[in-house]
Amino acid sequence: MTYYDPQDGVRADGQLPKMQIIGLIGGMSWESTAVYYRLINTSVRERLGKLHSAEILLRSVDFDQIITLQKASQWEEAGAYLGKIAEMLTQAGAGPLLICTNTMHLVADHVQARSGGRLIHIIDETARAVLLEGCRLPLVLATSYTMEHGFYADRMAANGLAVLMPEPADRTTVHNIIFDELCRGIVNPASRFKLLEVIARGLAAGADSVILGCTEICMILDPKALGFPCFDSTAIHAEAAVTRALSV
Question: 166 CB contacts (<8 Å, ≥6 apart)?
Fold first, then answer.
């Protein structure tokens, strides 16, 4: 791995830093894509110093069109659409590639195939972070698609990790907060309290930690302020992208 000195922004061999272009498939929602952009650039600046920032190619989609496909369970069509975008970003020079949402990792295989294996999978990276902290049964807060379609739990299991999903009524509460509020840029203190109640019930049911398994939830919950192990998939995913981009 290439080493960078954050004091002067040069490599140990005296050469200027090199980084791969990070490809982002965003807009799902753009609220969380903006968080990705900030986190990635902040991390690059912290690692390289000076006024360094990330080299990024962003293709932001019309989220309402994606929601229409989700509601109609047209996952093949959605996968083909995002896969085409992945190919476009790859041809434009992107190295590591991110789908800036958990839910659409349901079609990650399409994106991985069309990107030539460049995809950094958000579930894999989150599972790795959870396991490193010694947690074994995290509660997942996410959209109903992520919590109920099985792809998330199956991918976690492939990484050696079991997950706990909220009860049906709580899944509806979390899903509605995400789509009706957070995706629209609304951060409601009353909804924060509802999420904390969902978490409390999950912990009482045996969860040893919590995964913010939707990229918007970090807008309303601060993992560092909760008093128990909490893993923000957005921050984990963004940091993985920077690590890969700087490993030139």
Answer: 139, 140, 141, 147, 174, 198, 201, 202
What confidence category does residue 14 fall into, taking pLDDT thresholds of 50, 70 and 90? low
Q: How far is CA 235 from CA 2, 17, 158, in A?
A: 22, 23, 22
Look at residues 66, 89, 90 and name the one whose alpha carbon lies nearest to residue 78: 66
Chain mean position to CA 49: 25
Q: Give yes or no for a contact between 140 and 211, defined as CB atoms under 8 angstroms apart.
A: yes
How far is 100 from 218, CA to CA, in rounded Å?
Answer: 13
Q: Please name the helix (run of DSSP H) or strand (run of DSSP E) that holds residue 96, with its range, or none.
A: strand 94-99
Interval 23-33 mean pLDDT: 98
Query: How does strand 10-11 pair with strand 4-5?
Result: antiparallel
Indicate whether this model's pTM tops 0.85: yes
CB 106 within 8 A of CB 145: yes
Active site residues: 101, 214
**DSSP letter assigned to residue 17:** P
Spatial separation of the C-alpha atoms in residues 217 and 236, rounded to whole Å: 13
Alpha helix segments (H runs only) across the chain: 30-48, 63-71, 75-91, 108-114, 122-132, 144-148, 151-158, 168-180, 189-204, 233-246
The domains found in the chain, sorted by start residue, are: 4-121+236-246 (3.40.50.1860), 123-232 (3.40.50.1860)
Q: How far apart are CA 122 and CA 102, in angstroms?
A: 7
The CA distances from residue 88 to 44, 95, 214, in Å, are 24, 12, 25
